[in-house]
Each structure stands twice: as structure tokens, then as C-alpha cells.
Amino acid sequence: MIFGFAAIKIRLKAYKELSVRELFELQCVQPLESAGLASLSKNISFEDAALVRKIQEGDVDAFEHLVLKYQDRVYNICFRTVGHAEDARDLAQETFLKAFDAISRFEHKSSFYTWLFRIAVNLSISSRRRDRKIKMLSLSGGDSKPGLESRLADTDQAARLRGEVRDNEMLEPPEELKRRETQQAVAGALRQLDEDQRVVLVLRDIESLDYKAIAEILDLPLGTVRSRLHRARLAMRDLLRPVMEKVG
Question: What is the gyration radius of the CA atoms in the chain, in angstroms?
Fold first, then answer.
């Protein structure tokens, strides 16, 4: 089973505001809360439940509707958690494969999307921790370092890429260059947060999920979600302060 994933394009506002929410504007996802459609979430949950029951009754084609509905948001959660597009695509596909395999055991005690997002979050956190462990082992292992020739080749390639980037930057309008620099700064700051802070920030300030849904996804008390989000926002403000001062 192969799923296609639409590219996530994120346009960042010029950010003078301290709220992290003001730093992000998703073009491919319209959050229910920001759209004033909170009442619609109940209908969506009802529609999801009906599709899940059809799948459990043997209509496996109904799963495609759920994939098309949530693939962008699942990809976005994975991407913002692990920070790499290719890894995020793999994790998004793995999320839907795991969901498909387990959907016969889905008991409708929670909404489908919180159940699905929990799978995506758990896979993404596990992937990030595994990659960090591998990186630490690689740095500490004497025999795992590449040879001199390979390192020189990598250095030459990196130099060429940096030259191409500088050439492209010279051709960019100032506003576009500032926008791209801001986007890179936000992405870099997000990558520096630990997994717990990053995930709660992604779910609340990017995906616009309510606190109850986040608590269900992360299996945490509401108070823990609120305090963790507060710490994550403070950390982001500190990390982005130099850029905010530069923007003026």
C-alpha cells in the first residue's frame, strides 16, 4: 500500500509578536479553531467514526478517504518532530500502515484523529531518539569515521553547495531573502527543543489542537500539557530573540 503526500509549504509571518503561534502560518491546513469551526469537529469525528466502522466491516477502500483527509497533517507532525523531509515521509507512511493494521482493534473510545496522531507522534519521537543515539555512537566510535578521501570529497561538495546558495541569495529580492532567513531561524529553533517540548508545541501552535486532544494524544494530564507548552514557548522566545531583535 503506497500513499502520496502533498508537499507542505509553510509561509512565516514577519514576527515581532512573542506568541509562537504568530510565527507559523500553514497554507495546506486550515485549523478548526482559527477558522471558527470548532463545532465542525464533532461532525468530523462522526464522519471518521462512520468510515472506521465501514473499514472494520470489510470495506478497506474507505481507508483511502482517511489517508487523503489526514496525510498532510500527519506528515507535518512527523516533519516538525524529526526535522527531515524524507524521514517524515517514511514515518507518515508507517503511521498509516500501522493504523490500517490496527484499525480492526480500534474501540471508538477516542476520536480517530487523536488515535492516528498518537501513532505519528510515538513513531516520530522514537525515530528522533534513535537517530540521536546513532549520532552519539558515531561520534564516539574511532573506526566509524570516514576516510580522508571521503571527508575531502564531502568538504568540496559542501563548499560548492555554499557557493551556489550565495549566488542564489544575490539574485533574491530582499524581502524574499528575509522571509527565508526567518523561516530557517524558526525551523532551527524548533529543532533545538527537546522531544517533549517540540511535540506539544507542534500539536498546539502549529496543528491548533485543543488541550484535551493533546492530552489524549500524549497520554498526559491537562496540567502537564499546559506547563510543558508554557516552557516550550519560553524556550522558543529565547532561541528566537536575536532574530526578533534583528527584525526590529
Answer: 20
Identity (one letter) of the amino acid at 236?
M
Map grid coordinates 506568541 to a residue. Answer: 19
Rounded to the nearest 5 degrees, what angle is found at the Cα of 95, between the Cα atoms of 51 and 114? 60
Domain containing 216 equals 20-142+174-247
Query: 107 in a domain, yes or no?
Result: yes
Does some domain include residue 98? yes
CA torsion angle for 68, 69, 72, 78 (degrees, to 10)?
Answer: -100
How many domains is the chain built from?
A: 1
CB 112 within 8 A of CB 52: yes
Predicted TM-score of the model (pTM): 0.68
Percent of the chain with pLDDT over 70: 64
Q: What is the mean pLDDT of the chain?
A: 75
Of 152 and 80, the structure prediction assigns the larger pLDDT to 80
pLDDT digits (tens, 9 = 90+) for 3-41: 443 332 222 233 233 344 444 433 333 333 333 334 434
Q: Where are the strands (E) in 37-145, listed by range?
A: none
CATH number, position 95? 1.10.1740.10
